[in-house]
Amino acid sequence: MTNGSPEHPQIRRQADDSDPQTSIIRRQPTGSFPQLPVPSDDEPQTSFIPPSAPRPDDPHTSYIPRPTPVAVGSPGRLRPSPVAASITAAVSIISGWATAVIATSLIAGWWRTDELFCVAIGFLTAVSAGATIAGLIALLLHRRIGRLLIVVGSAVALMIFAGLFVAGASLPPIVFGIPVLPLASILLALLPATGRWTR
Questions:
Q1: Residue at 134 is within a domain
Q2: Which of 67, 119, 155, 199 stands 20 to 30 A from 149 (CA)?
Q3: How far apart are the two ends of the chain, measured CA to CA in Å?
């Protein structure tokens, strides 16, 4: 134990000729370096070839940003108001109900005296009711055909009332004011505000 601290003593011994060498031995090469083959002109190139400048007719492969959605129509355009369509639907319902009540009362009172007239009134009432109901549904669903069906149903209702007056039926005075309802339904259905609602 020489030249060592008490904590880490160093032990040295004299190397013997019989001990194997443990150090790295660098030796000189004994032969010549192998010659790499020189590629001929007809062999394919395998080295890196820098990309050439893109031609105008080459397709673009760069990132294309996603288009931004654009609203169609004028930005200040508001949704149409449902007021006109609601009033048209309400008046048409009242008009159809009044027409059905008058037609039913007329058929029940005149069935024994004039069956053919009662059948005609019943047919017109069914056509008016079917057109009015279909028109109301189409109108509430923003369909243009709804306005036309309401006009047709109201016009048929006016024909029913005209037939009553022509036949000279004895009617209460309030019945003479009922034709105002089909007329109001036609006018409300033809309003521009109702047309904007159906678009």
A1: yes
A2: 119
A3: 108
Domain-embedded: residue 15: no
The whole-number pLDDT of residue 91 equals: 93
Examine residue 62 and state whether it is found in any structural domain, yes or no: no
Q: How many domains does the chain have?
A: 1
Q: What is the pTM of this model?
A: 0.57
Over residues 175-199, the pLDDT tens digits come to 778 889 999 999 999 988 888 888 7
CA–CA separation, 157 and 183 (whole Å): 9
Residue 107 covered by a domain: yes
Exposure string over 170-199, b if 16+ CB within 10 A, otherwise e? eeeeebeebbebbebbbebbeeeebeebbe
- Token pair listed for 178: 């009922």
Domain region containing 165: 83-198
Q: At what angle do helices 145-167 and 180-189 cross, to 10 degrees?
A: 160
pLDDT of residue 2: 47
Written as one letter, the residue type at 165 is F
Residues 6+ apart with CB under 8 A from 20: none
User: What would the two tokens of residue 134 be?
Assistant: 């279909």
